[in-house]
Write a structure and sequence with these properties.
The chain has helices at about 1-15, 30-40, 45-55, 60-65, 65-90, 95-105, 105-140, 145-165, 165-195, 220-235, 245-250, 255-285, 295, 315-325, 330-360, 380-395, 400-405, 410-430, 435-500, 525-535, 550-565, 580-595, 615-620, 620-630, 645-659; strands at about 210, 300, 305, 515-520, 540-550, 570-575, 600-610, 635-645. The protein is an alpha/beta fold and about 650 residues long. It has 2 domains: about 1-490, Amino acid/polyamine transporter I (Up-down Bundle), CATH 1.20.1740.10; about 505-659, Rossmann fold (3-Layer(aba) Sandwich). It has a 5-stranded parallel beta sheet, sandwiched between helices. A 3-stranded antiparallel beta sheet has the order 1-2-3. Helix 21 links the parallel strand 5 (about 540-550) and strand 6 (about 570-575). Helix 2 (about 30-40) crosses helix 9 (about 165-195), helix 7 runs antiparallel to helix 15 and helix 12 (about 255-285) packs across helix 14 (about 315-325). The longest helix is centred in the C-terminal third of the chain and has 65 residues, at about 435-500. The protein is elongated, with a radius of gyration of 32 Å. Residues about 1-5 and about 20-25 have low confidence and may be disordered.
Length: about 650
């Protein structure tokens, strides 16, 4: 079975790369853009939906404010991009927001940022994949209702692609990402031409009447209206997620790393802003309307909508209006959008493992997360991210509107902390640098980061106020839990290091007074004789053999076989009136320890090496339980003596032949 899994792993993941292939994984800008920017670019697929859904609560008049809400989002996006261009030049090591906060604001702030980013990465995969499933259901109506299953399959496939390596994943994602960008910008251009020439039609949903939510009959007037505008803005701010991934992934760029990362950031900001502006303009011009519950919030000619009405996403409605439903350009736009939403999750699959590796190196996460796998990707981080996102998709049934309420809280916490950290970074640098041109460049960078800090802090406050009751508290609770878990892991590693530090008492010259060897015997067979030979070869101070009397007849046979071979080692029979194997052995070992506390006891256990998975179920189970108990006994060591069964030899020959 083990060989089967190894063969399956090679098929799915590929042959392992040596360390000399590390340069092979570095990305040029044309590949880095789809790898690291697909999340932010793809947000135009669901950010406009969330803006329109929120404004619809106040009626059709409120929906006309969507372009202005989008403009505010674009201003924040471009400001954050400009700020992060300073970050990648100042901190090119790949720690991103975590490193900046940790270095300039303290370990507590760094861990807070790390917790926020890890949670946000998991949500990125869940939201993007759920949105992709919804678009697929739009293109294939028969799949409606199966979005959660589609999203789960998508996460599994994406994890497999990333296990093959970052460059391989980037090559897979590059073409679809550029097709998506071309299709959205092309649709925007065609729509603008139609609008200028008076040929732009109206979306099917434009004829619907929106029923305002109770208390919102006056539209956006008053305090409630202002609050709703802020809610729409905070939902649209999802367009900013993914910007931070480039600062975390600077080491993956080809040289000059910082310059290439900064250029990729600029391209990301311009393209995302242009596409978001185009979608919101066309949505407003074609009269696209969205509702959280179309059956109860829409009327058609004064009557509820027909039963079975399926609300299509904004881009689908615009594409149907501009190109015609079912046309080839329509299918291209919808298909490209669905694919990019799947690939948007790849941004998290690149950011999460790298950040987890850095945190593991610093002792905040299990050490297994810091090492690269067969294909030089951080495989354990990829698997951890996939598992977390699958839990969310299943728990929320791939409902984008519910999931997005948890979203962006974490990323704006990291945005705000990193910008404050950069302000302090430039302040410390200015106290040292005397060169005038360099000082002017630093002052300019500090101004940009200061503007970025003020803007992201404002957005964070808005997000917390408007989204807390809608689900943001869940994300905050997850961040707190992760913060406490990482703090506990760090404390554990620190205590273990202190406990295991070498001192005078642990000098290699401090040998035990004597060594007592104990051989466990069940039957007198070849494995027992091999273990006996190994025990005698170690020349212990004393050597005892013990067997537990579970069955009187078998015990008598064991004693007879032992005496027949004239083995020069005494065999002690341990009574077991309750037919328990482990307890008599532990009592025997503890009695030896009590009699000679300074002596070392080595217990030799014969074990079978098997070649088939089911053979492990019928062998070595008692030995495993005994070893587990003995590992908790101070002054006791366990020596497993293997005996290779024929099936293990066959398995080894098959493995050698494959290699």
């Amino acid at each position: 079975m083990l060989n089967f899994f190894n063969a399956l792993k090679r098929v799915l993941v590929g042959r392992p790369f040596g360390n000399d292939r590390m340069a092979h994984t570095l990305l040029p800008k044309r590949i880095a853009l789809p790898v690291f920017a697909s999340d932010a670019l793809s947000s135009v697929a669901y950010a406009p939906d969330e803006i329109l859904l929120t404004l619809a609560l106040a009626g059709a008049a409120a929906v006309t404010m969507s372009p202005w809400v989008g403009l505010a989002v674009m201003v924040v996006l471009l400001t954050v991009v400009a700020s992060y261009r300073q970050n990648v030049h100042a901190y090119p090591s790949g720690g991103g927001d975590y490193e900046i906060a940790n270095s300039n604001l303290g370990k507590g702030a760094g861990l807070t940022v790390a917790s926020a980013l890890l949670v946000d990465y998991v949500l990125t995969v869940a939201v993007s994949m759920s949105s992709a499933a919804n678009y697929l259901a739009t293109a294939v109506p028969g799949l409606h209702g199966s979005q959660a299953l589609i999203a789960v399959v998508g996460v599994v496939l994406l994890a497999l692609v990333n296990l093959r390596g970052i460059k391989e994943a980037g090559s897979v994602f590059a073409v679809p990402t550029y097709i998506f960008m071309a299709s959205i910008l092309g649709m925007t251009a065609v729509g603008l031409i139609q609008a200028l020439t008076g040929h732009l039609g109206k979306a099917a949903s434009a004829s619907f009447t929106i029923i305002p939510q109770s208390g919102m009959e006056n539209g956006l007037a008053g305090l409630a209206g202002g609050f709703l505008l802020l809610r729409a803005f905070s939902s649209g701010a999802a367009a900013l997620t993914g910007v931070e991934a480039i600062s975390n992934g600077v080491p993956n760029f080809k040289k000059p790393k910082s310059k290439n990362a900064a250029t990729t950031l600029l391209l990301l900001g311009v393209m995302a802003a242009a596409m978001l502006a185009g979608i919101l303009y066309l949505a407003n011009a074609t009269g696209v309307q969205m509702a959280g519950d179309p059956a109860h919030e829409f009327l058609l000619n004064g009557q509820p909508l027909p039963e079975g009405y399926i609300q299509n996403p904004t881009i689908s409605q615009i594409a149907a209006t501009v190109f015609g439903a079912g046309s080839l350009p329509f299918i291209l736009v919808v298909a490209a959008t669905g694919v990019i939403l799947v690939f948007a999750s790849n941004t998290a699959f690149n950011g999460f493992p790298v950040l987890a590796s850095i945190l593991a190196q610093d002792g905040y996460l299990p050490r297994q997360l810091r090492t690269r796998g067969d294909r030089l990707a951080f495989s354990n981080g990829v698997l951890a991210l996939a598992a977390g996102s699958l839990v969310l998709i299943i728990a929320f049934n791939a409902d984008v509107t519910r999931l997005i309420q948890l979203y962006i809280v974490g990323v704006f916490i990291s945005f705000t902390a990193s910008q404050l950290g950069m302000i302090r970074h430039w302040g410390k640098a200015l106290r040292v640098v005397k060169d005038t041109p360099t000082r002017l460049r630093m002052i300019r960078s500090r101004i940009i980061n200061t503007v970025g800090f003020c803007m992201t802090l404002t957005v964070l406050i808005i997000v917390l106020i408007t989204k807390f009751e809608q689900g943001a508290w869940i994300a905050l609770l997850a961040m707190l839990a992760l913060f406490l878990i990482m703090s506990s892991i760090h404390a554990h590693y620190r205590n273990v290091a202190k406990e295991l530090a070498v001192d005078e008492d642990s000098s290699p010259r401090a040998l035990p007074s004597r060594v007592h060897a104990v051989l466990l015997v069940s039957h007198v067979r070849k494995p027992v004789l091999r273990a006996l030979a190994f025990a005698r070869a170690s020349r212990p101070s004393s050597l005892d053999a013990i067997t537990v009397d579970i069955d009187a007849e078998e015990t008598a046979q064991t004693i007879q076989d032992w005496e027949k071979l004239e083995i020069p080692v005494p065999l002690t029979v341990l009574a077991s009136p309750y037919r328990d194997t482990i307890t008599p052995i532990m009592e025997y070992i503890k009695a030896m320890r009590s009699a000679s506390p300074r002596d070392l006891i080595v217990v030799y256990i014969p074990e079978y090496v098997v070649g088939k998975w089911w053979e492990q179920l019928v062998h070595n189970q008692t030995a495993l339980r005994i070893k587990t108990r003995l590992h908790f006994e101070p002054g006791v060591m366990v020596a497993s003596v293997p005996w290779q069964l024929k099936s293990s030899e066959d398995a080894r020959l098959v493995q050698d032949a494959r290699e």
